[in-house]
Amino acid sequence: MNGPVFGDIPACQARTREDRIAGMRPDKALILPLFLICVGCAAPDGGDAAKSGGAIPPLPAEPAAVAEQVRQEFLHAWTGYRKHAWGHDELRPLSLAPHDWHDQTLLMTAVDALDGLILLGFDDEASETAAYILENLSFDRDIEVKTFEINIRLLGGLLSSYQLTGEAGFLDLARDLGDRLLPAFDSATGMPYTFINLQTGEVSGPHSNPAEIGTWILEYGMLSRLTGNPIYHERARAALQALFDRRSAIGLVGTVIDVESGEWQDRTSHVGGRIDSYYEYLFKGWLLFGDAELKAMWDLHIAAVHEHVAFEQSDGLWYGHVDMDSGEKLATRYGALEAFLPGTLALDGQLERARRLQQSGFAMWNLHGIEPEAIDFSTMTVPDGAAGYVLRPEVIESAYLLHRETGDPLYREMGRTFLSALIQHARTDEAYAAIADVRTMEQADSMESFFLAETLKYLYLLFAEGDPHSISEAVFTTEAHPLWPAGPK
Ligand code: DMJ
User: Fold this and answer.
1) Alpha helices per DSSP H over 147-216
2) Mutate to test the pocket of ligand 1, among 392, 435, 447 (most ligand atoms within 8 A of CB)
């Protein structure tokens, strides 16, 4: 299960830090001009715009027309997968070859994308995909998988597809997968191991992290609700509790923990990868199941996060890296994964912070015209090894949720910037490709399944009018699979 490998390409930035900061706190009137500036500076070698023949046409004015354009981009990416990688986990969009994470396929992109095909109204493609999954997907495989990824991409996808279609086969597959993942929770602490063999149940990887331990309650909770078997919910809930009980005296968690001993291995605290969706699921576990204890756990953590992990700078609000015990500030690093937080804060009604942090995420996007994996926000530079963009959704997810909660057109303007940049730099003739280095816009041969499952879904919903499939009543999993407390209408 290898992610894309990014090249080591020198920076191209000529602007000073002050110039960048000045361009990063745009008021509404400045957003479009800034976007044009960023597009102009983003690809010194001519980039993908040159490859695809120059300037892209402007986006339509009407939100519904932009939503339709996103639909067409979704279809474009889906068609590339359908044509070149059907029956496999992923498309490699530059070599136009299929890619499987393991020796045997788990149909990752098909399962991850199916509820999106349904929500965006691609009925024929959805029917064909549903039939293919039901006929061909099997979890009786002698392969070692990453428990977290399989849960969020596959179990979450199957549950959403079941709620949207009522097709019993999806619930059968979800139950089978849920059962196969259960032995992962048989550690001394009840926190799940990182890996499991789907056929033998053999576990490995005792060093895990809050995100991978704490991102189960939505999927396993819904599996219990739909099957009537409480075991899944119980195991996910116990894992959350075990993790919460190991918080520091100031209410923070670290980055790596041993699920056998319960000892922290890395005591760095932040809101990015390896911690992010633990916090997200405490809040959303309350939203979906009304579990008031989860809300209290979220409240305690998020107050500590605001107190110790937030960095107030002259250019705005950021969240960096601190020591989980002392709160000592360790690094001024913020990234594409951290950008989920404004959306979750918005759902909790913490709008002022959410708005300010989203502006920082937007500044990160505009630094080079597409966000890198991370920046050092004290210098507004990209650290070594963090210049890639793997088509991540989080800053778009936050724009969607902020727009939903505030109605402020600012967030659709951000969405236009995101969509234009994706079309200009990440679109290929046959699909979409990750960006190896946002300073050069060189593309990478990867199209993660979350590009369809999350990035384009949130972009579509940001502009869609009405309430397709009563989506406003759904709670989105961390992989953007909507789950409805009482099913979609
Ligand atoms: C997705 O698989 C999920 O959103 C996860 O929580 C974080 N990483 C990717 C997207 O960036």
Assistant:
1) 147-149, 156-165, 168-181, 210-214
2) 392
Distance 337 CA to ligand 1 centre (A): 7
Residue 12 CA to residue 311 CA, distance in Å, equals: 27
Please tell me whether residue 435 adopts helix, strand or coil conformation: strand
- Across the range 243-253, mean pLDDT stands at 99
Question: CA 284 to CA 268: how far, in whole Å?
Answer: 24
Ligand 1 neighbour 450 (Cβ under 6 A) = yes
Mutate to test the pocket of ligand 1, among 89, 271, 395, 478 (most ligand atoms within 8 A of CB): 478
Which structure tokens are listed for 19? Answer: 């110039």
CA–centroid distance, 479 to ligand 1, in Å, is 6
The residues, ordered by sequence, that sit 6+ positions from 334 with a Cβ below 8 Å of its Cβ are 272, 318, 319, 320, 360, 361, 364, 374, 375, 377
Q: Which residues are 254's β-sheet partners? A: none
Query: Rounded distance, CA 377 to CA 332, Å?
Result: 6
Tens of pLDDT along 254-269? 999 999 999 999 999 9
Distance 108 CA to ligand 1 centre (A): 14
Tell me, in angstroms, the distance from the centre of ligand 1 to residue 152's CA: 8
Q: Exposed (0-12), middle (13-18) or buried (19+): which is 371, by Cβ within 10 Å?
A: buried
What Cα–Cα distance (Å) separates residue 452 from each residue in 419, 432, 457? Answer: 14, 10, 7
Indicate if the pLDDT at residue 109 is higher than 90: yes
Token representation of residue 22: 């000045």
Band (pLDDT 50/70/90 cuts) for residue 487 is confident
Overall pTM > 0.85: yes
Is residue 479 within 6 Å of ligand 1 at its C-beta?
A: yes
